[in-house]
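Case study 2.
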Amino acid sequence: MFGRFKKSKSPDTAAPESNAPLITEQALAAALERVALPEWGAPIPSSWVHIEAGNATLTLPFAADERVLEPLRADADLGQLKWQLKLAIEKLPNSQPDLPMTFGNVIVISSGKGGVGKSSVSVQLALALQQLGANVGILDADVYGPSLPTMLGGQEQKLEINAQQKMIPHQRHGIWASSLGYLTDTKDAAIWRGPMASAALQQLFRDTKWPRLDYLIVDMPPGTGDIQLTFAQKLPITGAVIVTTPQTVALADAEKGITMFRKVGVPITGLLENMSYYQCSQCGHQDAIFGVDGGVRVAEREQVPLLGQWPLDARIRAGLDEGNPLVATQPDAPLSKLMKDSAYKLAVELYRQASKKRKA
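Prediction:
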């Protein structure tokens, strides 16, 4: 809501009530129409803005950091106000509205095939959302090859079970993590048929005592088999992200993944092209090892938002191998900012799609 606005006074009236900048309600409304938030692409709703004595608060229903305030501060009218950011991340509709949800928005990170860096993307997106001010959890749904304990660290720490037989997730780098890898020995192999693996995944999802979360990132196993279908049909999903590399064989499988989620009624929040290019650390030369813009073309053809193009970089690999992801240890590095841009786009698109669905 709009707060109290200062009105113009005639010269012979008393001195102004305060030193707050002079801005009329009409000028504010016009400014909110013309100033666009990054990636939002629509007028800023007046319900997101509160003005009080020259101080302005922008309250967003999705994860963001203070970079979103830059266009407001740069505007001639809005720049007179002292802006601050507040988050009130909204719990959005999901694919199974009849199921009880004890936490926020479930985002599955999927790929049509293995080897495209899906787990790496899952971890970095989860950490980036946390750095954008959200409470974030991550679930390792790849029961055959759980990799979160390696990428987040703490392999030697096993999950605790409370008196209610609920698993207590680990807190790693500011996010909450649950994985079969925190329950078994690192060298153990999960030799399960599809139904057993699907049941184990459902139990891992439901029997983890998550704290209050804004987003739960689910690192799915690759493919479009029993586990993916079970999760999509029996568990509440807010949106899905497809990870691919630019090469043709990966793109074909990415489109299969998009088709599967659409058939079971799960919205595709976006596509992320990983390993888009290799950049030499010595000379800066970029080499498109797996092709150029393949993910961009699939996103355009399938009418799916493109969340970003991430490079193939040794620093990303090294950080994950050591259990210290780059976005957590070097949050101001250019690569980390690129990942946070993708996480912000993901949060915005998730909210935008849900808003359109509610208005339909």
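Residues 25-87 form one domain.
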